Amino acid sequence: MKLNKGAVLRLMESQGTLLTAKQLRGLLGLKKSQSPKLKAWLRKQVEKGTLVQQGVRFGSTRLLEHAPEVPSEEEQSSRGAKFQSSRGKTKHRTRDRRSGAHPRSLQLRQGRFERSRRGFGFVMVGDGEPDLFIGEEEQNGAMDGDTVEVELLRRRGFRGRRKGIIVRILKRGNSTLLARLDRKKSAVVAIPVNMNSGLAKLRIPREHDDLEIPDGTLVEVELLETESGTSRTPQGRIVRSLAEVNLHELAFERIIQENQVRTEYPEAALAYAEQFSTRIAFDPQSGRIDLRDLPFVTIDGRTARDFDDAVTAEELDGGRYRLQVAIADVAHYVRPGDPVDAEAVERATSVYFPTHAVPMLPEALSNELCSLRPGVNRLVLACTMEITPEGEVSDYTICEGLIRSRARLVYDDVEEFLQGRPSPIRNPELQENLRLMHKLSQLLERKRGGRGAIQFSFAEEAIALDEENRMTGVSRREQNSAMRLIEQFMLEANETVARHCVHHKLPALYRVHEQPNPVKLKKLQRVFWHFGVTTPMARLQKPSAFNEVFEQIRALPVKEQLQVLLLRCMALAVYRTENLGHFGLAAEFYAHFTSPIRRYPDLCVHRALKHWLTQQRFQGLDRKARKRLQTPIPEVLPELAEHCSQQERKAEKAELQSIDLLKVSFLERFIGEGFIATIRAVSNAGLKVLLDPHELEWFLLLEALTDDWYSFDEETLTLLGRRRQRIVQVGDRLQVRLLRADVLQRTLDFETVRWLS
After folding, report:
1. Would 73-171 and 671-755 be classified into the same CATH topology?
2. How far apart are alpha carbons 473 and 458 in whole angstroms?
3. Which of 13, 219, 264, 631 to pair with 179, CA 20 to 30 A apart?
């Protein structure tokens, strides 16, 4: 039967629902060979505006007349609507997808869309539900970072995940993007620089064009939205030419934009942060405890400016200790709903780049008034814990206090002192305090190791910068004793506060880390057997079993890659409104309490504690007085927990991308030169290598190995050449030549010169 285009349009209008090309072919009695022609015609009609498209389904434009209203911008952005709107199941009636006639119930979810480099993506729906897989043809014009509505499908997707189709874009993650102008005779289009944006091109209407900008110029384009639910060729408006902008600055701007990092504070927030007096005096009537006689110190990185925590310890009789952790009292200054809080909740976290930080709070608070700088009075929430000889907390108190830090110490200097090497720390009182705290931290570390806390061992890349923030080199460093000292003290305070919040039923955000995926662990069994690991993967439902495996792979060249495989089997740590424990720490109770300057969940915990402390002070009053002075308990909703988890992911992604950008900028000058690459991990996509002489880690795509066709063996973690039978494995070395460095795309192209192993 010949394709009758008029019949197709009449059929779609009569059906009153969306249909796939396959369904249309069946209803029209067309042959399978006519599918490509039908699909091409349908897409053309979408571009003309005759039809609408949602994923792989098409329908009449009359469907728009009955489409549900999209919430207004004010409704979406308001604080109450954002975190109090229901994200549960929504049901609508429509016709059955297969017959086009019978009504059925749709299951809809809302969440944030993340697109992978391979084209598919996932929607994070929160509330403990697994992410939904979204195929490349089910994205309906959604871009990475968009808030979308998804219809659940019956069939499964990638690796058995639940699958969905995006039916509505509720809110764009980004309203502008970077693109290259492509002027054709028939139309002007902008090609997004981010090849993973989800949009192949944007059409620039004549009224939104700038004729003075020549073809091929980089431009900033504002996305123009069409009717909700359609997938017509997206349109854009040229905002400005970027021809004169420095390429490296533009590349960093792209990272900021694509990860929706907020870099500017509203004027109201800045003004609010500046209103507080910088002079802090002790007020006996405030209910605070004066802790200024205690030898608190801060220990941080050399470039840190926001000092959240100060610590001190003393030894008691019978092998017991008293540990005191004082945390900046941010909640004293940042109150729910004030201008700073409104911006802080949007950011939810500070973002740390190698060159600088984008703080959650204005610098007047983050680096000044809240920062526990030495020699000045600072307001704190203090947790004092009495520790038994076994490392357990036998008693604790939480109070609002006032401290004056004795010193601002640096990790490297403390490490030198603890290892008996020359150090700038000369004060005898400080030295004695550090020895005692080191002894206590080792006790706490043994306790956690004994109960099974997982102890991954990864070397961290440290980027060296010059005075102009240009990369000069890379080094790799392990966590030292000074870092572990602070880590153990913070863990102890976090666990103690989480237990307190649970027992007193305080509304808080808890840090939750669930058990690893048993299906993923099972798939790794043959891999670990190959490398001589006798522990069954099924036992890794207990954290202590991970450490058994680490002991067995400690001396293997592939140790790091095997650790990464195990790490990928584990759940992501997230924020929840209920305490579900922390698998990795083998902790029954866990929350973030120690960094309110840079994490919003910590600020929520502080507010809950301060409300509880206020109620305790009212206990001696009569009922009428308590009722008169009582303040409402701060509310913490699941939507806020999900938002904070998502913001944390975006911040981590932005930081990693900025490191890649620095590496590409650094190696740009070496185009045409050779490097010795040592293989650190092998996968089906390529090789993770260490480039000498710069000790720089990079991922070498499989296409760079041009001497043979290689296939990946998932069991042995090796590549095998088909013609020469070369086995490529961790530890092998090869010489490579740098061909291209693309700063804007953060990519390096290499070719293989010769194998050295």
Report:
1. yes
2. 19
3. 264
SS3 740: strand
Write the DSSP symbol of residue 136.
G
Both tokens of 144, joined, read 């990475």
The yes-or-no verdict on residue 1 having pLDDT over 50 is yes
Q: Return the ∠ at Cα 668 (arms to 665 and 669), rounded to 5°.
A: 120
* Alpha-carbon span 609 to 468, nearest angstrom: 43
Coil, helix or strand at residue 684: coil
The 10s digit of each residue's pLDDT in 655-682 is 999 999 999 999 999 999 999 999 999 9
Q: Which amino acid is at 20?
A: T
Number of residues that this document lists for the chain: 757
Share above pLDDT 90 across residues of the chain, in percent, rounded to a whole number:
60
Residue of 724, 749, 725 lying closest to 736 (CA atoms): 749
Is 754:704 a contact under the CB 8 Å cutoff?
no
Q: Supply the pLDDT for residue 201.
A: 85
pLDDT score, position 752 = 92
713-717-721 Cα angle (round to 5): 50
Distance CA 344, CA 367 (A): 15
Burial class (CB in 10 A: 0-12, 13-18, 19+), 460: exposed
Strands (E), 421-522: 460-465, 471-477, 510-512
Residues pairing with 57 in the sheet = 20, 54
What is the three-state SS of 579-638? Answer: CCCECCCCECCCECCCCCCCEHHHHHHHHHHHHHHHHHHCCCCCHHHHHHHCCCCCCCCH
The candidate with the shortest Cα–Cα distance to 642, out of 572, 571, 574, is: 574
Compute the Cα dihedral for 333, 339, 344, 350 and give only its sign: negative
Residue pair 698/663 in contact by the 8 Å Cβ criterion: yes
Residue 723 has pLDDT above 50, yes or no: yes
> 73-171 architecture in CATH?
Beta Barrel (2.40)
For position 97, what pLDDT does the model report? 33
Over residues 512-566, the pLDDT tens digits come to 999 998 888 988 999 999 999 999 998 999 999 999 999 999 999 999 999 999 9
Tell me how far apart the alpha carbons of residues 46 and 64 are, in angstroms, rounded to a whole number. 13
Which of 322, 432, 428, 446 is CA-nearest to residue 385? 322
Beta-sheet strands, E only, within 495-601? 510-512, 574-576
Residue 735 sits at the vertex; the CA angle it makes with 733 and 738, to the nearest 5 degrees, is 130
Calculate ∠ Cα 571-573-577, nearest 5°: 120
User: What are the tens digits of pLDDT across the range 431-457?
Assistant: 999 999 999 999 999 999 999 999 888
Contacts of 660 (CB under 8 A, 6+ apart): 746
* Structural tokens at position 10: 């009449």
Return the pLDDT at 56.
66
171 close to 199: Cβ distance less than 8 angstroms: no
Please confirm whether the linkage preceding 693 is cis (ω < 30° from 0). yes
Q: Residue 322: is its pLDDT beyond 50?
A: yes
**Residue 402 pLDDT > 50:** yes
Quick check: 641 and 577 in contact, CB under 8 A?
A: yes
Q: What is the pLDDT of residue 505?
A: 94
The residues pairing with 710 across neighbouring beta strands, listed in sequence order, are 721
> Which two tokens mark 357?
């930080």
* CATH architecture, domain defined by 5-66: Orthogonal Bundle (1.10)
Which long-range contacts (C-beta less than 8 Å, at least 24 apart) are formed by 42-45?
A: 45/9
| Domain assignments of the chain as residue spans, ordered by start | 5-66, 73-171, 176-245, 267-511+589-638, 671-755
Pick the CATH number of 176-245 from 2.40.50, 1.10.10, 3.40.50, 2.60.40: 2.40.50
Write the CA distances from 681 to 230, 640, 706, 731, 755, integer angstroms.
Answer: 44, 38, 19, 8, 16
CB 322 within 8 A of CB 396: no
